């Protein structure tokens, strides 16, 4: 019935777009894609890299997602970990899933993301 996930949405506080851009475009290297005009008036921004899309939307009573998170497959997980560390983002490696190299990080608003070595 389902072929893929179209996008994942994470919340940001009002006015948090520049922080989101610095992380998703600046650190992760994703491209910002334009939001449709009817949605752009709400704030937030959308990012894409290949078939991966992350939408960040304004939530008035913002609280970062600390448990719920997207998990992204990464071609070179060591390069990404180094880039995140250099940018000051946390890199917390986990060996809880045998045979899977992965770590957790946070965007500039504290939302949790998991990075998984490509399989």
UniProtKB/TrEMBL annotation:
Residues 4-118 form the VOC domain. PROSITE patterns: VOC. InterPro entries: Glyas_Bleomycin-R_OHBP_Dase (IPR029068), VOC_core (IPR037523). Signal peptide: none annotated. It comes from the Bacteria. This is VOC family protein. It comes from Yinghuangia aomiensis. The lineage of its organism: Bacteria, Bacillati, Actinomycetota, Actinomycetes, Kitasatosporales.
